[in-house]
Write a structure and sequence with these properties.
- This protein has 529 residues and is an alpha+beta fold.
- It has a seven-stranded antiparallel sheet with strand order 1-18-17-13-12-9-8.
- The model has no long low-confidence stretch (mean pLDDT 95).
- The protein contains 20 helices and 19 strands.
- α2 packs antiparallel against α4.
């Protein structure tokens, strides 16, 4: 392993950046619970990972309440503007919403979800949860990953003066270790700390967001912002060899992972052998079938009927499993791009409360637009809507798009044993399959399972073919056999970000130990105490 398993007994935080993990642990040590730590952690990630996440985007929580033993789901995704009807785009001849345009801006749901979760579960004063984020926004060292992303997306960042002034002052591309100053974002956090979501959706921040979006030709209005609400509900779940796997519900793609687990439960993966060609083949084929159903059904459940019980039934899995040829790859191109930028983190506190959170502004740096004086990068999530009137994810006023975001909690005998998630757009359910299988089916520890070679199937920005992309750390004989089975294999470099940056926490109740893991493919670290 590149890194040891991080262990603790009183609390654990696994995030995509060490400063965020440290913030979360410090909140826990001050007496805060997992929800308090999640808000503070996420705020810091907004500062240190502006290419991945932020208050201009959406989030989803799975929350395990130790007192009740229940897992709840909080949908913190925003809706399309009320003016965003299909006819508007048809009249303009737009067939796909551009990701780098104001048309892609939907209502940011993150801040509302923070406060809604805090009002139900939080213990520390809301204002105290933003102290570190404010400090780091005033100045913190740029990581190697962030410096690379700024360089890679310099054209987008340079397209908007407000954005350029933050990330490329005077046209300079910052290097790792230079200090990034986000003074406007620090001031925004000061406002949120004192006034909460009211300031974001009804006050000066909302006005700055809508006026900037409209100046750039977008449709977001004050009414869209003021009418936003989060949604509490139940997660989706299925059983897998005696475990219960919980995933975020629609409009997320958590269903896709569960459909694939249901298919795989009917095969003897242990006999196939971890990371052998037969094992990978069956996983990829299960993914293909799961994504057909994902693309056919998942969108905003307030707008479309999703037959979740039918799809997750074991009887349905038996019928679908028969479509998997054990020797030959099916020519199925379901899914969109595997590339996407998101942050995932998991937190367990001393009482056993758990937060599994996935948060994003969609593609790197969202749409690139920063409303004047706010420091907030706005998400490009609206670009994921379809403009095909027959597609379940077709845009409509007030609709929430299908999200690639998904987070998980796994239980055994009604006790959580694993909290896990990853960034990576369409790759997210696929990484869930690989990592969770290594842990549940083969007994690997959390860090081993995260560090192992990974694959991802589907299109990417650089490769529009629906190929099976495999890190070059797989055994060449395995790759050769997969090609012989009909898989269109392309090789990724070792430790490729194309297969996601994963984090997770395993829980050992017998010894009372929390074990955290984080992905060396990114900047993540787990910290426990």
């Amino acid at each position: 392993m590149h890194r040891p398993v991080v262990m603790g007994t009183k609390g654990m935080v696994a995030t995509a950046h060490p400063l965020a993990s440290l913030t979360g642990v410090n909140i826990l040590k001050r007496g805060g619970n997992a929800i308090d730590a999640a808000i503070a952690t996420n705020a810091v990630l907004n500062v240190t990972q502006p290419h991945m996440c932020g208050i201009g985007g959406d989030l989803f929580y799975l929350i395990f309440n130790a007192k009740t033993g229940q897992v709840s789901f909080l949908n913190g995704s925003g809706r399309a503007p009320l003016a965003a009807n299909l006819e508007y785009f048809q009249e303009k001849g737009i067939t796909q919403i551009p990701v780098d345009s104001a048309y892609a801006v939907t209502v940011p749901g993150c801040v509302a979800a923070w406060q809604d979760a805090w009002e139900r579960y939080g213990t520390l004063p809301f204002e105290e949860l933003f102290e570190d984020a404010i400090t780091y926004a005033e100045g913190h060292p740029i990581s190697h990953k962030l410096a690379w992303y700024i360089s890679e997306f310099k054209e987008l960042l340079g397209s908007y003066p407000e954005t350029k002034a933050i990330f490329m002052p005077e046209g300079h591309l910052p290097q790792p270790g230079e200090i990034l100053h986000q003074h406007d974002l620090a001031n925004t956090f000061r406002i949120l700390a004192k006034e909460g979501k009211k300031a974001f959706y009804n006050g000066s921040i909302a006005e700055a967001i809508t006026s900037t979006v409209q100046e750039e030709g977008g449709l977001l209005t004050n009414e869209d912002m003021a009418s936003h609400t989060s949604t509490w509900g139940d997660p989706l779940a299925t059983t897998y060899h005696g475990y219960t796997i919980y995933q975020t519900a629609p409009n997320t793609q958590g269903l896709a992972a569960l459909l694939a687990f249901n298919l795989l439960e009917g095969f003897n993966l242990k006999e196939m052998g971890v990371d052998k060609a037969k094992y990978i083949h069956h996983m990829v084929e299960a993914k293909k079938l799961a994504f057909i159903d994902r693309d056919r059904y998942i969108s905003d459940p307030e707008f479309v009927d999703i037959p979740v019980d039918y799809l997750l039934s074991k009887e349905y899995a038996v019928r679908r499993r028969q479509l998997i040829d054990p020797e030959h790859a099916a020519k199925i191109n379901a899914g969109n791009q595997v590339k996407g930028d998101t942050t995932y983190f998991s937190i367990v506190d001393r009482e056993g409360n758990i937060v599994s959170c996935i948060q994003s502004i969609y593609l790197p740096f969202g749409c690139g637009i920063v409303p004047k004086g706010t420091g907030i990068l706005l998400q490009s999530r609206g670009a994921y809507f379809s403009l095909d009137p027959n597609h379940p994810n077709c845009i409509a006023p007030g609709k929430r798009t299908l999200h690639t975001l998904t987070a998980s909690i796994v239980t055994k005998d009604e006790k959580p044993c694993l909290v896990f998630g990853t960034m990576g757009a369409d790759g997210q359910p696929q990484t869930h399959l690989q990592v969770i299988s290594r842990i549940l089916d083969f007994g690997w520890n959390i860090q081993e399972a995260i560090e192992a070679p990974r694959w991802v199937h589907g299109r990417s920005m650089a490769d529009e073919t629906s190929s099976l992309k495999m890190e070059n750390r797989f055994d060449p004989s395995v790759i050769k056999e997969l090609v012989q089975r009909g898989h269109d294999v392309s090789i990724l470099p070792a430790w490729s970000s194309d297969v996601g940056h994963a984090q997770g926490i395993a829980i050992d109740y017998k010894n009372g130990v929390l074990m955290g893991g984080a992905d060396p493919r990114g900047d993540g670290y787990a910290i426990g105490w």
